[in-house]
């Protein structure tokens, strides 16, 4: 069965086709399911299939469309990262002891997607504990990049990005604390949006056996992934909003409109360097090409500003705060071992690896001081966004790299233009937006010389998520966007 005319359409396009009765929800679901069955033995993106319930939802959507009902995602097939609770399906986060755990209720975001008429095809693969930019675990195996099966699709939402690139529905849901929607989008040539912190309630997105209650998971957010920029706003409007169990704490759906509607009106700061982790020449070239195109379109483009926060200081702060949060959930033996190692650090060791180790055993007093530094950082960003509408910068320093499943990430290396860097130091680029909680939209910008996708992130002002998404939409319309992988464009 060859691809249909709908296989690589966006959700926005499919919604219009459904409303015009050009296609049915059942046909869309059948097309996506057929592609999964035809291709996923090579990619391994869909780790949990839910085709029977998907077809039931598709038939219900067709009936609703027949009654004239209108919902944002009515009849749209989509996938969901394995880490979201869906009643009756496994939620394991890749932990083998949890392979049989099945929650009894949906995550809040899943409930909202279903209420909006979305047709959930299944769940996508993740790394163990969502802790890698490669998506593999001992339950579901390894997910491959559709543009090169020997390389990572990114992580931790790597199954979602691979599914989108392969035509398994136009939308997916992921999570992001260290670039986990933006990095896979970058490596698979698709779009993703990391929302403003706390904009999307996270109840039901938690490790297996953890009670699904409202909670504050510092730095972590949930966000949409798609093959088209406009679909990010469509999905964000569905999942955003406070948790009703949180007594109204949070934000409403009334996000500000985009600052501008035309490229010529945007004021953009473009950044392509980092004192600790420079992007490679291919990534820099793609950024320079985009900057040139924006200038030709009339946008005001600057390449430096004294208002930009210090990259090195922000990276060190992010490493400490990230690991201070993540290590709180580590087993006692692992935590105590890291504490002992941190005690041996030289006081003048300011490497990113040292800061990660310090963060693991950080005291509450030190964390409060770091949180104050983060507040000052947010003030710097507010000042910057009075002069600029968006900051464009790398997501990662290199295009997708070959699978490397060596167990200790701190001993892995990433090669940037012939020089090796510590693998986890790559956190610096996605962390630039994560630490202050700012919205960031990942977009594809083309391909490197080896045929692998490259892209950028567009960082926007606090709670102004629609501004970077709109800029992404305008860039896509003017200069192009997603291009299907040749191996699976059938």
Based on the coordinates given, report the CATH architecture of the largest domain: Alpha-Beta Complex
Strand content: 5-15%
Number of domains: 2
What is the assigned CATH homologous superfamily of the largest domain? Amidase signature (AS) domain
H/E series: HHEHEHEEEHEHEEHEHEHHHHEEEHEEH
- From the N-terminal CA to the C-terminal CA, the straight-line distance is 9 Å
How large, in whole angstroms, is the Cα Rg? Answer: 21 Å
* CATH top level assignment of the largest domain: Alpha Beta
Overall spatial form: globular
Task: List the strand order in the largest sheet.
Answer: 1-3-2-6-8-7-14-15-11-9-10
Outline the biggest β-sheet.
Answer: 11 strands, mixed
Put the structure in a nutshell.
The chain has helices at residues 11-19, 25-43, 51-66, 108-115, 158-166, 182-188, 229-239, 281-296, 311-326, 332-343, 352-360, 364-387, 428-434, 466-479; strands spanning 46-49, 77-81, 119-124, 136-137, 141-142, 171-176, 191-194, 221-226, 267-270, 300-302, 390-393, 413-416, 419-422, 440-447, 453-459. It is of the alpha/beta class and 490 residues long.
